[in-house]
Amino acid sequence: MSDLTHLFEKIARGDVPSHKVYEDEQVFAFLDINPLSRGHTLVIPRQRYERLDDLPPEVGAAIGRALPRIAAAVCRATGAHSYNVLSNTGREAGQVVPHVHFHIIPWHGPDRSLGIRWPATPIEEDDAKALRDEIASALADGH
Ligand code: AMP
């Protein structure tokens, strides 16, 4: 386990210092130490779950309740109107800290924002139908 594994639990407990902006029983939010833009904030469950899809429904609900309020406050404080919310899950997708977190990244101009590559191509109708069925059936199975 790397040093980063338990970092966010320590931050939520106050054992490692952070610039806290919000906390409740289940959720903690603080400024990113290496921001992509002014106001870049991280929102985490206090308890460590590595992946978004590991979250129990009640913890997911607590994060869902807090995110819009925190995003609104970040906008009010920084004067941003646009922002991205991002959760990297898995190393290949850019997750460095193995504790679920949502980045709130205010847009302050093209060089002071997330900057996403979005190489989209139109969906294929046959694949869309197959995928829809597979995802819906995985949900029905509770996976
Ligand atoms: P990710 O790549 O999605 O895992 O993002 C991890 C984020 O945690 C990065 O944006 C880091 O800048 C941020 N980070 C790492 N250590 C700290 C810390 N001690 N305090 C605040 N943010 C941190």
The first-to-last residue Cα distance is 27 Å
Number of strands: 5
Residue share in β-strands: 15-25%
What is the element string, with H for helices and E for strands? HEEEHEEH
What's the short version?
The protein has 143 residues and is an alpha+beta fold. 31% of the residues lie in helices and 16% in strands.
Characterization of the model:
It is a single chain. 31% of the residues lie in helices and 16% in strands. The chain has three helices and five strands; from the N terminus they run αβββαββα. A hairpin with a 3-residue loop joins strand 1 (20-23) and strand 2. The chain is globular. The mean pLDDT is 96. The protein binds adenosine monophosphate.
What are the key terms here?
single chain, 143 residues, alpha+beta, five-stranded antiparallel β-sheet, 3 helices, 5 strands, 31% helix, binds adenosine monophosphate
List the SSEs and their pairings.
Layout: H1 7-13, E1 20-23, E2 27-31, E3 41-45, H2 57-78, E4 83-86, E5 102-106, H3 125-140
Antiparallel strand pairs: 1-2, 2-3, 3-5, 4-5
